[in-house]
Structures are given as structure tokens and as C-alpha cells.
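Case study.
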Amino acid sequence: MNTDTSQQLQQQILDAFEHAIALRIVGGNSKAFYGRAVSGEALNVAEHRGILNYEPTELVITARAGTPLNEIEKILDAKGQMLPFEPPAFATTATIGGTIACNFSGPRRAYAGAARDYLLGCKIINGKGEILSFGGEVMKNVAGYDVSRLMAGAVGTLGVLLEVSLKVLPKSEMEATRVLHCSNVEALEKMHVWSQTALPISATCFDNTSLRVRLSGAAKAVDAAINAIGGEDMDNASRYWMDLKEQRLDFFKTEKPLWRIAHASDIEPLPLEGEYLYEWGGALRWLKSDASAEFIQNTVAAADGHASLFRHTQQQGLFQPLTPGLMRIHKNLKQAFDPKNILNPGKLYPEL
Amino acid sequence: MYHFEKVESKIDRATLIDALQGIVSGESVLFEEEDLRPYECDGLSVYRALPLAVVLPKTIEQVQAILSLCHQYHVPVVARGAGTGLSGGALPHEQGVLLSLAKFKKIIHIDPKRRIAKVQPGVLNLEISQAADPYGLYYAPDPSSQIACTIGGNVAENSGGVHCLKYGLTVHNIQQLKIITIEGELLTIGGSGLDSAGYDLLALMTGSEGMLGVIVEVTVKLLPKPDRAQVLLAAFDDVAKAGEAVGNIIAAGIIPAGLEMMDKLAVRAAEDFAHAGYPLEAAAILLCELDGTNEEVSEHVLKVREVLKHSGATEVRTAKDDAERLVFWKGRKAAFPAVGRMSPDYYCMDGTIPRKQLPRVLQTITDLSKKYDLRVANVFHAGDGNLHPLILYDANVPGELARTEEFGGKILELCVEVGGTITGEHGVGMEKINQMCVQFNSIELNQFHAVKAAFDPQGLLNPGKAVPTLHRCAEFGAMHVHNGKLPFPELERF
Ligand SMILES: Cc1cc2nc3c(=O)[nH]c(=O)nc-3n(C[C@H](O)[C@H](O)[C@H](O)COP(=O)(O)OP(=O)(O)OC[C@H]3O[C@@H](n4cnc5c(N)ncnc54)[C@H](O)[C@@H]3O)c2cc1C
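After joint prediction, the assembly is written out as follows.
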């Protein structure tokens, strides 16, 4: 399916701009849980879909924002390529636009980079209804400010994504997963020893008893790394990494608030009550906890990190407060892209 | 051809110099003409100007005080690292202060466990890798100017190097910045982890050419040094075949650490300079570096050899040891100065194109070279499509520089036409300001101005660079009609 609804989208935004109507941007609705609730008229991007250009030897794909993520993954897979940031979908309806808007990256992130790192360019509609293009389909481009990357993680508050161009990479020739049994402190120690070597690690996860390590690369390199790391081979490993990425492991089946905590990888386990799961060599830690948001965010801030309430059945999402100086710049930028505050208002912070 | 954005400052020169001397010690404020001369240009020496004063602070507090002073009295500020920029980004403003970060030379600390280095902006690119070396780590982006350029300048330009296809640009290799706004406020951007809350201001600052804030501290990511690196050299009797070989390597599922191409004239210049044993009869050569674990490199070397031969290489050599690997690279890394020896002057262009357009672009450059009667040597970061045509000219021949600039402008416009960009890594600065009007339309340029205003509403940081005013574009458009259409029909003509 291939449809261009950019004119309708633009018209709806122009009308909303004229009458100052708040818009709630909806892609595949797979990540509606993420961020603060937005009340506004729905702006449906999912019909604006289709792959516009894919050149395997140029390592680039361009697609309309409403293109399903799985459609993109399928076409890349057929050519032995992938989105290196291994994005979670959270539902089969997930779109590439929503993925980039949230800057969601999966287990490979610590070893290959985030969604924003692979974003080469995008076409957007800003809050005034203007269609703008930034970046492009080439690997290196420093003409003008990097507005494309600014869109990654802005969750639609600065612009509605119409098209994105992404760098893609070849899949690895071989993959293997090793399991080691150890404590959290030992797991952190091991991951840091490995990270100072050139071992072809592509994912790590520690779940309180077991440390799982995925190796990806040339067959001989993976074999050599298996010897260096030790541990046991894991059955059904690709299923495991998929379930981790999609948050389908038992750990994620919970009524408790799920916190996403990001800080330096070597931070010792923080004094926060609850159950943990570590990813990204220790740089990303999921926490199920009933502790107050304030306590969690203060504790994480003291470790120079940030915590967001990622998912919860009752409460809405919540991001780490910004310093007044940074908030001022954020507000100015919001004003620069969306002067009437109509695009996903309040999705990230009440002020934006 | 350029002109400054005029400003109305609320302070005279003598009072300004006095006030600056109240912030930093006397010898850190330069104002005599002979002291200002060394700062009159960056690596693009065809543009020169003297600032009112040069100031060389050494603490964050001093930078804050200087910026708030300039803010209060509406004085333009141009930040400068080592001045190796190739687009006139650090060209002084005649009515402004040139703020040199040269005294910010400290490597604050290296944390091998976190694999980061926290450094001051005046630290040289290569110094970071040298300091990280005892830990088996290095900083990946390696511009050819790495022995001279500063990390602050690298961030401001989002600099690349020969290894960026695999390891990314500056934006992929930094984690945190401390910047001072024009009001003198210190902001910390990014974080100590892999991401931070809020908008990606780290990306926005990277490549912002000193327009949004002054960078006073940079935390870079370090990588473990690969176990092994191996380089192959392949010769081709046809540039198009060399271009195709690049695509074939990638199609084979291999991302080389470096993948560089040089055409015949560049090969000849590099060979005369570095004696690397390059095949002089080749129409183009490719250098392909593979790195990783020992096993991986052995496997990939065999594969790439095959691919190169299949792609029609007339010769494929593998460096027999590390010494020969460095010799192969020496010619490439010295390509700019080597070409510089063939001619009194050269002008380095910096466009990026989709790689498949290479034959067409090179052919057009050859045609233009005949038309303008100027020789061109092409050096190409082939892996990521970043082309550096070096136009040879003689500034002492009347009219030759003007012809060179026109020729260069045509090359950049060609890059845009084939789906690329006017600058891959050297920035817009003053040099490519007109071509920005070709790549972006007026609403996009206005959006850039709005981004700038979010940080610097009065436009005091590096005024007149990086993003052209619409009037400037209208003026340029009057000389330059694109595809038979005026690019800014809504603006009145001059
Ligand atoms: C021989 C040669 C080879 C080169 N090869 C490459 C290459 O391979 N790849 C590549 O990318 N570039 C290359 N360059 C270009 C140049 O070296 C880079 O752009 C470099 O990053 C500039 O650093 P600098 O310290 O010299 O910055 P400067 O030239 O002093 O400044 C560059 C820009 O950054 C701003 N700036 C500098 N410091 C700060 C700061 N602390 N805060 C805010 N703004 C600041 C300035 O205002 C200016 O706009 C080459 C240049 C030469 C001369």
C-alpha cells in the first residue's frame, strides 16, 4: 500500500493553526502509553505510507512516516540488511514515523547507536503548516542546523514527520548468545571488562541471576569471542532478544510502574526499592517500583542520570525535569517550530 | 564575494577593550594590528578581516563574563578553535570580538571504564587519542587536520574523517557538552549516559558553527582499538568501475573502516609527495581499510580482494605489514598539501553525493574544468559519498580566483542537483552561504533563523555565517536563475 496524504495532513494543520486547535498525532497507536496524555483532535499519519527509495548499496532507505515498521524490516531483510538500532515495535501497527519520533532503540543500541544516529534526513510539517526538508539521503551533511536529529525524541512536539531517510547496515553473518550466572555487581564488572576490548558484542541483559550476551559478526570473530567470554550457549536466543526488545519477558508483565533509568554504565546499583533488569552494558536499567516519582528522579539525578516513567496502567508518563536554563531553550525551540502550541501539546512536558 | 551583517553596537572600541581587560589579564586581550593579523582568517585564506579585538580567556567564568558583556553592548562574537576550518567559519567580524579558545587546553579526565574523555575545547583532536592510548582506547573521528584542529572546532563543524563510514561523525561520538549562551549562562547538554531528557540539543549544537553558543567542555566517547587493521589498495582503469567496486563491497555485507578514492591527478600528486608506490597509470585507486578482530579481518580481506577483482580492478595489493599500511595511508592523508605543491593555490570543495552518481558528477566536473580552464584533482571519501574536488589556481593571475569560486559554486550546485548536499564536513561558514539558497527554500531558511533565535535572539554569535538572510538569497538569485525559475519569487529583486 502506497498513499500520499501529505496535502490532507497539511490542510488539517493549517486549519488547526488558524483556529489554535490542539492536535494529537497518531501513527500506529502502538506507543500511545508513552509520554503524557494529549487531548486534542486526532491527526492520523498512518495512511501517509510507502517506501519511496531503497538502495541497498547506498545503505539508505526513505519512507513515508506512516509506513509500518515491519514492512521496512521485511524489505531490508530480503537484502540482508537491517535497522541497526533494533527498534521495538510494541505492536504490529507500529510506524517508522512513531519509532523515530520517540527515538526508540533496542538491545543493540549501546553497541551500534540509537535511532537518532541513523537518521539522515526528514521531511516535516511544522506547527504553522509549512512543509520543510532537512538533511537528506547522504551519509554526511552539515548544511544548516541538524533539525532532523532534533525531531528524534521530540515525540511530535516540534513537527509532524512526513518522511524519514535512514542509514541501514548489513546484518551480521553469525550470531550467538552466551549465558553466565552471576550477581549484579559481577555482571557490571564483566560488561565493563568486555567493553574495553574489540569483542563483537551486540547486546547484553542482566536479570538478577543471569547475564546474557549476544555476539554478532563474522563467523570466526564470533567463535573467538565465545571462547573469550565463556558461559553456556542459549537456546532460542533470538526469541529471547525479541521478547526483551518488545517487553514481553515476564519481568515486564506487571501492574507496577515501569521506570526507564539511564545513566553512566558503571553506576553501582542505586538504593531504589524494586526489581531491576539491566541492558546496554548497564547504561539502561528498567525498574519496577512503587517508590514516589520524586524520590526516584532525585536519586537518579544524583547519579547524573535521568528517569522516566515509561509505562503504567494508571498514571501517565513522566520525564525527568529539566534545569531552568534548558527549559528556557526548549520553550524557545517549541515556539520556533510550533508557535501556537498545537502539535502534541504537553506530550513531553506540560510547558511544551 | 561577501559582506558583513552590520550591527549597531552600544560601546566604542576603546571602552570595549578596557572592559575586556577587566575580565582577563592584559596580555590576553589583543588589539594592535600586528597582533590581530594571525587571526584574520581560518584555513580558507581568501577571506580576511580584522576584529576589534581578540580575547583569550582561560576559565569558564571569563567566557561567561565576556559573552554577557558583548550581549549587554550588542557586540558580535566569533568563536575560534585552531582556525583550520575550510569555510570561513572563524572569519572575524569587523565590528566584533574574536573569542579564541586556544587556552582551554586541559584534558580534564579519561575514564577507561566508561570509555569517555572529558576535555576542554582547545584540546587538539589527536591529543585525545594520544592520551587514551595507554588504555587501549582512541577517539574515532579523525579529520586529516587532526594534528592541528581542536575538539571544540570539530563539534562546531561536526567533522568527519576517513573512518566515518564505520565509526560515524563527531555527532555520533560525543556524549556531553558544556556551552555558554550569549547571555553568559552555562548549560550542560547531553548526559553521562547514552541519552538525556528532553530534545536532542547535543545534535543541534553539533555542526552549528559557533552560531548557537560557545562550547567550553566536551565529553567524547572512546572506542577500544581494534585488534588489527589491514589495508588493500586497488587500481582501476576507469573511475566508474572504482565507484562500482565501492557499492559491491557494501553489497557483500562488509562495512570497511575506511574507503577512499583518488583520481589520476590526486594519485600523481600524492605519489610525488609521499612515495607510497601508488600505480601512476591508474585512472583511480581505492584504499580499503578493514579492522576488527584478527579472525574477522582475515576473513574480510579475502572477501574484499575477490570483490575488487570481480569489479575489474587491474591490480589489488594488500599491505604486507603495518609499516606498509601506514605508507599506503600517508599518500592519502597528505593529499591536500600534496596537491598544493602542484599549483600556487588550490581551493578545496566539499560536496556529498549519492555514490551511484559518481560517474556523472566526475564527468561534469571534467567538462567544467575544461570550460573554466582550471585543473581539478579529486579526493573522495568514497564510502560515504563525500567528494573533495581540489581546484588548482593561481591567485596572482587576475580573475583566476573569481573563476575558481564560480567553478566551485557550480560543483556544489551539481551536488544538490543529483540529490546530495553542498557540504559534507567542512561547513557552510562564509564560503557556501550563497549555495545554501540553492539547497534550501525560504521557509526552510526561516526555520533555521528561528532555531538560531531560540538561542541567540539578537544574532550576536557569528553573524552572517552558516544561514543566509532571504535578502542575500534574493540578491544571489538575481545573478543565478535556477532551472529557469527564480528561487525566491516572493521577494523583490534588487
Ligand atoms: C589540511 C586540512 C585538512 C582537513 N581535513 C578535514 C577532514 O578530513 N575532515 C573534516 O571534517 N574537516 C577537515 N578539515 C577542516 C577543519 O580542520 C575542521 O573543520 C575542524 O573541525 C576545524 O577545527 P578548528 O579548531 O580549526 O576550528 P576553527 O576553524 O577555529 O573554527 C571552525 C568553526 O567552529 C567554530 N568554533 C570553534 N571553536 C568553537 C567553540 N569552542 N565553541 C563554539 N564554536 C566554535 C568557529 O566559530 C567556526 O565557525 C581540514 C582542514 C585542513 C586545513
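Observations recorded in class. Chain B has 17 helices and 19 strands. The first helix of chain B runs from residue 13 to 23. We will return to this complex in the next lecture.
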